[in-house]
Design a protein that fits this description.
The complex is a heterodimer. Chain A is an alpha/beta fold. In chain A, about 40% of the residues lie in helices and about 15% in strands. By secondary structure, chain B is α/β, with parallel strands linked by helices. In chain B, about 40% of the residues lie in helices and about 10% in strands. Classes of the chains: A alpha/beta, B alpha/beta. At the A-B interface, β12, α8 and α13 of A face α3, α6, α7, β4 and α8 of B.
Chain lengths: ~350, ~350
């Protein structure tokens, strides 16, 4: 290969995209990194160039051809409905992806397309399997997940139409880490965490460092196919809240809507009500394929991801270790008084 | 097949003329005193299986002060783990800490004093590695699953945790569903079950499902259809043996005499039982009758030596399923013949 990689990243204003751009710029085999977004990038992008444009505008198609882009990394699908509203989110996610991939089909030098997807495409339900493998039928139950399912459909169609094109779909679990601002990260940062009474979902997290590394490898090595990307292990939501040391307020199912709306009004967090099923049943994806076929072992487990997030956000337990020690000593003293011969 | 069609009363009558009691000595000091067959022993002790393990005297409650302190320290460290989230769950959501420290100790009096469960054939359950336990299901509420779980944890030499395959209805219920998952239940899905078995877990399945657990008292100990034989497919794919399990006593906990179909439909339940004690005795009627239980673990049915694509041969799967069902049915009849009384 005489030329180095020439890479286009969409959604460059996001924290994950910025991290990836920096990593790719540092790689000596990479000749060019261009980012596209409608928003102004706020993160440090190193040597990456940015273009402010709509993904659906002809600018992107021209860019692909003029810059002889060989790798397209589509990170531009957004999960935050609050910013732009449900209707325009769909417009943005689905239609932009359609236009982008249509332009990609025309780009002569393109060899690799990478799509950032989500495990939300599997849905959450008591009646679906406990461990989603990549071949599970998608069962989107939120607007965002439906968008992603459609975007994946366009990527599949592109792979079918252009033979020899490597299409990699990476389904990430809930991302946490530097520069990440998702409804779930804001939810975990609440001072008091509301949960659904009587339900305790299993939660699986993915650290942004791992996400960036997986994206980098998908870009520089050839890894066609669909892969779940998540940290090892699983936490119950109740357990995650305990690790954070925050009080949990279980809300009865019929009141969840009201509470969610009240929290939304405070503008701290947009609790997406379409995530209600996730907050009831949770979601865990099988990462065997990532380990065995993709050849990557996540550095952060789900627990380590959460702990890193809590440390970075400065979230400390309300009842710390010293207080617990004191309480423990108090309890032991009490028992010794009640059972006088208890000293051994 | 002939065994299943034999009438229960007839089966018991066959045994009546001898009217002798079994002379097998028990570790508790007494004799077995089940109705004896021609050999002078009951059907259970006819084979020279080793008698059930003696109750560990150290488990008996003690008022020794140092033990009190030990107990308090245990409780405190448990509470601390729960408060700080310092416990691990597996990907299916099994919370071993909670199950062994809280849930099973709560259910243990039921096992030891209320149903006075006795077990045989535990040597058929391997110390390590996967095996699929297939048992009969009865008694309106799944006490049989809980008792089997305690039997394997307390009385099996390797103290094994049973992982049950549950219906989605159970996992969908608030509180109950979350608790079921935490105690090791997971949705009965082929791929998940295969995964558990390959991970070396003991998996329990009650293939009669709601048909079995909700069947009328007049049909007691007559097995329903064993689902569609899906569990055989699972065992074949995982290459693990099938261990037939016969549970005696569960049928008499809630003798179902009627089913209020319209109420069941209204509540979205598979059945709404009228039992001897419910709703006649009001809330007291929720208490199961104190039948004496007996759980027999049968000799493993090996699935090795079959062609590798055996799981894809529906005929073979159904035949094997029929064989397992027949085995469990024979074990039930054999144990019923040896039973002295339902409650004593």
């Amino acid at each position: 290969m005489s030329d180095g990689w020439r890479i286009l990243i969409t959604g460059i204003a996001g924290g994950l995209a910025a991290g990836l751009a920096r990593r790719l710029c540092a790689h000596e085999g990479v000749d060019l990194v261009v980012g596209v977004d409608t928003r102004l990038p706020v993160h440090d992008l190193d040597a990456a160039r940015t273009v402010r444009a709509e993904l659906s505008s002809p600018v992107v198609g021209e860019l692909l051809q003029r810059e002889r882009i060989d790798t397209l990394i589509h990170l531009g699908i957004t999960s935050t409905p609050g910013d732009i509203g449900d209707r325009s989110r769909k417009e943005h996610n689905v239609i932009d992806t359609m236009q982008l991939l249509a332009a990609a089909q025309r780009a002569p030098d393109l060899r690799t397309v990478i799509l950032k997807s989500t495990t939300a495409v599997y849905g959450s339900d008591a009646g679906s399997r406990s461990l989603f493998a990549e071949d599970t039928t998608t069962h989107a139950d939120s607007g965002y997940a439906r968008d992603v399912v459609e975007a994946e459909g366009y990527a599949r169609a592109l792979a079918r139409r252009r033979e020899g094109l490597v299409v990699t779909v990476l389904r990430f679990a809930n991302l946490l880490g530097a520069g990440i601002d998702t409804p779930f990260s804001r939810y975990l940062a609440l001072p008091v965490i509301p949960t659904v009474l009587g339900y305790d979902p299993r939660v699986q997290l993915c650290h942004t460092d791992d996400a960036v590394e997986v994206l980098r490898r998908a870009c520089l090595d050839t890894r066609p196919g669909i892969y779940n990307v998540a940290g090892r292990g699983v936490l119950y939501l109740s357990q995650a809240v305990r690790i954070a040391g925050r009080p949990r307020v279980p809300v009865p199912m019929p009141l969840v809507d009201v509470v969610a709306r009240a929290i939304r009004r405070t503008r701290i967090v947009d609790v997406p009500t379409d995530q209600l099923k996730f907050l009831s049943y949770g979601r865990v994806a099988d990462i065997t394929r990532l380990r065995e076929r993709f050849g990557y072992e996540p550095a952060y487990s789900t627990r380590a991801t959460l702990e890193a997030f809590l440390a970075a956000e400065g979230i400390t337990p309300w009842v710390d270790d010293e207080r617990l020690d004191a309480l423990e000593r108090h309890a032991v003293r009490l028992v010794r008084e009640l059972v006088p011969d208890g000293r051994s | 097949m002939s065994g299943q069609e034999r009438d229960l009363a007839e089966v018991i009558a066959i045994n009546r003329p001898s009217r002798r009691r079994c002379v097998q000595p028990l570790p508790t000091g007494g004799r077995c005193r089940n109705w004896a067959g021609p050999s002078g022993r009951c059907r259970i002790h006819e084979t020279d299986e080793p008698p059930p393990a003696a109750v560990d005297p150290s488990r008996e409650a003690s008022t020794d002060p140092s033990r009190v302190e030990e107990f308090v320290a245990g409780v405190l460290s448990f509470l601390r783990r729960r408060i700080t989230g310092a416990y691990d769950i597996d990907v299916f959501g099994f919370d071993r800490d909670l199950t062994e420290q809280v849930i099973l100790p709560l259910a243990r009096p039921l096992y030891q004093s209320y149903f006075r469960v006795r077990t045989t054939g535990l040597e058929h359950v391997p110390d390590t590695g996967g095996a699929l336990l297939v048992a009969n299901h009865a008694g309106a509420l799944p006490f049989d699953a809980i008792m089997t779980k305690i039997a394997l944890l307390d009385e099996h030499p390797a103290h094994r945790n049973l992982r049950e395959l549950a219906a989605d209805l159970a996992l969908r219920l608030p509180v109950v569903g979350a608790l079921a998952r935490k105690t090791g239940n997971t949705l009965a899905h082929d791929d998940d079950a295969v995964r558990l078995l390959k991970d070396g877990e003991l998996v329990g399945v009650w293939p009669e499902g709601f048909k079995g657990i909700g069947k009328p008292f007049s049909q007691r100990y007559k097995l329903e259809r064993f689902g569609r034989g899906g569990y055989v497919r699972v065992a074949l794919r995982a290459g693990t043996p099938i261990i037939p399990v016969a549970i005696i006593g569960s049928e008499e906990t809630y003798p179902i005499v009627g089913n209020v179909r319209w109420l069941a439909r209204l509540l979205d339940l598979p059945y709404f039982p009228i039992t001897w004690q419910f709703p006649l005795l009001g809330p007291l009627g929720l208490l199961p009758l104190p039948s004496r239980w007996f759980i027999e673990f049968g000799a493993p049915i090996a699935v090795t030596g079959l062609p590798p694509d055996a799981a894809d041969d529906p005929m073979l799967v159904l035949e094997l399923s029929e064989r397992v069902r027949d085995t469990v049915q024979q074990m039930l009849y054999r144990n019923l013949m040896g039973r002295r009384s339902v409650f004593l």
